[in-house]
Queue: 4 jobs
Job 1
Amino acid sequence: MDFFIQMIVSGMSVGAVYAMIGLGLNLTFWTTRVLNFGQGSVLMAGAMLTAVMVGSGVNVFLAVGVSLIATAVILWLVELVSVRPMLRLPGSMGWVVSTLGTGILLQGIASWLFGTQAVAFPDVLFRSVDTVEFMGAYISLQYIAVFVISVLIVCLMELFLRHSIWGYGVRAVAHDRDLASLMGIPVRRVVVFSFLVSGVLAGVAGILISQVSGTVDPNFGLHLLILAFVAAVVGGMGSAFGSLAGGLILGITEKLVGGYFSPAAAEVVAFVLLIGVLTVRPQGLFGKRETVKV
């Protein structure tokens, strides 16, 4: 029973991080209809910068703050260089190659600057030995903290999107970009701000997931990006709470399969879940089917 509880808690923790990364993907997708395949490298950059700065003696909170600013700026540059030029070409899918290429470039830069070996990640929240007992199971406080912070951020973002002027702007641009522009909504600012916020979310997610894994390397971002994409699609690309639900379902299932069967079996959970949900409900569990009036 104690092993089962540990698997559930760890699955909820990493699943909540998947949801936060998926929410960042959703933000940029809503405003540009572009899936940023460089998001994984951005969250890697945030975690790597934090680890290197703390290892060099920089205060941990200052390192985290600088890293989040850096990830926001990086994603703004991604929008400027890799996304905006492609949107000027109607019907073009060039953003797939451009965002993926930018992600590979960031990976290469990180490998060049910091090496290809994994770097130990510092204890930002709690130490790995800090635990609390629950029903006979010893649960890491790191997992609990990561889960609480991730869920809190997702919930606050949902409220912000629903009840703020910027949130209204995001939903208007997502519904009809041209009509939003005609109504006086600053579409360009909305898009840029969505990328900045998505960059911060990526940075936070990278730091949190590295906290529980204990290490970070230049190549770990792509795997997380795929899992976050699955979580967003399973939950529904138009819903922040859908991303949270999809992330939790994926994270818990992945941990249970890996714990009771094998880590190799856990690797295919995301794809089986994705295929199953798309077959039964293509818009995701909480997504809405799009209707077009002609």
Job 2
Amino acid sequence: MLRIDGLDFRYKSKNILKDVGMELNRGEVLSVVGPNGTGKTTLLKCIAGIMKPGKGTILIDGEDISQMKIQKIAKSVAYVPQSLPSRFPITVFDAVLMGRRPHIAWKPRQKDLELVAAILKNMHLHDIALQDFDQLSGGQKQKVLLARAVAQDTDYLLLDEPTSNLDLKHQMEAMVMIYNMVKKKKVAAILAMHDLNLSSRFSDRMVMLKAGRVFCSGEPRQVMTVENIKSVYGVEAEIIPTNGHPYILPTMPVNEQKITEN
């Protein structure tokens, strides 16, 4: 289990996260949603050990992350950032192989190379395995970084906007792959997401942040309500049940009127 209690993070004079708490079990997908600037990325970076919270605890399988060495954290948690590196002058194969770094003493073993090859094939990236990462499209780069996280072979995946650079088809492919991997391997994933409909469809539980605090949490049908959408996003919406999942249809920003033609 990953457990967070009373997490605070301050950047200069601004509180980014305030008394955040949540739990995540293996075999679960949890989406963190909320408006821009509400602390989603900061939360993932704190869990990954990239940022140090001012207060609170993060426990990974009962162990305080603040007491763990960097290599041990890397064996437990894989983090995929939202922003793509501007320069990464290596091949796709080597970029994914970097995910094995926490498990490699001096040089890659044969099983590391075979694992990377299998991941590239499963994610339909084998055809570009020898291409330079810098020459790829934004969507291809996003998939390669996701493949690198898979190669890291951790119990917890932290994915910051994993579908942000993907077209509709590849968004669905990525979300299905993440969901199936979580269920099959009994790992856990936390996704920072803007797309509420993808979140509600592929998440076991959701956490909605507002101004750095947990506004509500629970199953998608409990979180994705008309009242919550209005309170957190300032948008009027309809909630349409679709295949057992809530589908959010925004209708109008609060206090705005649609211009109609005469």
Job 3
Amino acid sequence: MLLADLVDASGQVAATRSRKAKLAALAGALRRAGAGEIGPAAAFLAGQLRQGRVGVGWAAISAVQAAPAATPTLTVGDLDAMVAALGRLGGPGSGAARAALLRDAFERATEAEADFLRRLLLGDLRQGALEALVTDALAAAVGVPVEVVRRAVMLDGDLSRVAATALTGGEAGLCAIGLQLLRPVQPMLAATAADVGEAIGACGLSSVEWKLDGARVQAHRDGDEVALFTRNLNDVTARLPGVARLVRSLPAARLVLDGEVLGVDEDERPDHFQDTMSRFGRHDGGGAELGVWFFDLLHLDGRDLLDQPLVERAALLAEVAGPLKVPSVLTDDPAVAADFAAGALAAGHEGVMVKGASSRYEAGRRGSAWRKVKPVHTVDLVVLGAEWGHGRRRGWLSNLHLGARGPDGTFLMVGKTFKGLTDELLAWQTARLLELEVGREGIVVHVRPELVVEVALDGVLASDRYPGGVSLRFARVRRYRPDKSPAEADDIATVRAIRPGSG
């Protein structure tokens, strides 16, 4: 199978907003894949590498000088083998070997394939098709009910492996995939709600739980063996020896738990998110003293609990985890839920989760049965520049560079965002920013600081990445503010005073 087939499908996906059309393009490409190709093809279409990170960054790719090929000859198998070879490199001489592999691939690639390859290796495909859509397209391609494929991906955690099983084993092969201890499953995700009243109205009788602002972790135990995984299914057991000891001490021999790792101070107040993540990300034992709290139980001593109602899973979790269970209240009264949410915020946490009492654990899905409720901050910032977009945003200035007022009247950059922009707003924004252009640097167009934009965010983090000394967390555009002048934008002190969970 030629890589060009995937590139063509990716282009069709990027060119449409129709989910039906996206599915048709993806399924068509997957139908053309053979038994040894459908695994990597599915991964590539989802913007993934089967091998995970392979040590290739922008510097290595930008150093490659290769004229595009006139006709496509590069196959999906060729690309998969090249990525695997990159992942095996290490030690003396690996830099030169990596450059040679990349040069060979780009010399064989057409211009469109080279663009696809570049974005794939950098994790920046941005074509409008994530794993969930490719999963549904796989079901259509192999003629298996979509629910069966979704559940197989949920339990296996590896889309490429499930794709190969779907082609060779069909529905029976997929149904044979079950929850396996020490192999992570994809985490269940939550939709959002503006407030607890809206969430209770949607979910009815619910478990309202503290929403901890830490690092999500999935804990597996099989006898004395414990494995800990991130929400991206990476094994972090070695980083969290204290958490592993706690899991090993629980009164059950076989467990799968879903929870959150968090740092706390002497008064049991939670650390700032960035401090927890800094310790969590270290490989030198920095995460040894991080605490853990659990909010779900997926397996207990030989019994899978994914399809059991939340209230049953919660009762068993309370027996197993005791004080390590995240605080919660079962209610259908919005006032009770609001009081509980206020207590969570007062304790320093970022909000609450509202989960339907009868909900199953729908791993890998952003289901409506779980709703996250947390304060949303808005700030008025000035646009300092923007980056040209990729995929279906090609030709538009998309990723905004945002600044807050400094004490001397200048503007200090505090972050970027490309979220919340409609096609209509992108078109207007591109035209207006080009009128304000003062210079360019690579894909960045710098502009006069004249436009004020209202940005919603979940908080800020201390950061030396931007001159403002902070970075915006989950920033998204709400609207432009033509009624405000740059002098009326929020100052840097106001932005710095915001932290996750405050408000």
Job 4
Amino acid sequence: MSALPTARVLTIAGSDSGGGAGIQADLKTMLAHGVHGMSVITAVTAQNSVGVQGVWSLPAEAVAAQFRSVVDDIGVDAVKIGMLGTAGTCELVADLLATLPAGVPVVLDPVAVSKHGDPLIDADAVGAMRTRLFPLATIATPNLDEARTLVGPDGDGQTDQSLLAHTLLELGPAWVLVKGGHAEGDPTDVLVARGRADQAFTVARDDNTHTHGTGCTLASAVAARLALGDDVPTAVAGAKAYVTGAIAGGFALGGGIGPTDHLWQLRRALPL
């Protein structure tokens, strides 16, 4: 009989009823990496391939109870943070993270809008994320648009990912990865840390338009690999390779943007 995974990874994020992003994508990604995924749901969305039809934040008591239930009994080896939605939830999650044992890596994916352009965070939450969550992050993984928003007015129209990443590094995380999928040309993600040379991860752009959930998937893959013992650059490189394959395998689902294929590696291994 196979042993259960020893690495335990907790996602704190919103639920995507369409299954392509959010908690659902996080847990699929964790399963694909062989770790045990657990969840704290911060919000429920009515969401499908064409957009977000509704967002309902969960009460603070529900968020805190989920966290304490999981962490106090099962424990955790890494945390991934996704959609939080409100300043109050950002502050609550920061308080909860402060109770974790020292050394537990935290991957912060500062979700601001959906793939369809629907807002998933309010204006006050941006400030709370900057001041309360960035200082607690092992690595933050904003895309180009999120990085500009988090930097503020100085980030408007900025295309230099390294400059944006180093500006965000001043907020306190150990590492920042600014993703370049929204830029022109082949996508490049830029990883920075204090006292280290920048690292760039570039792949050829896939013409597949079914890319719902890529940000959630990348952050969850990084968290899973950190829980398994990778250092940050190695975890990012491995997560980037995993997401690249998932994008190539993305499939049509519904009438809009379909999801990436979180099980692409398994499908390749299965006999036809």
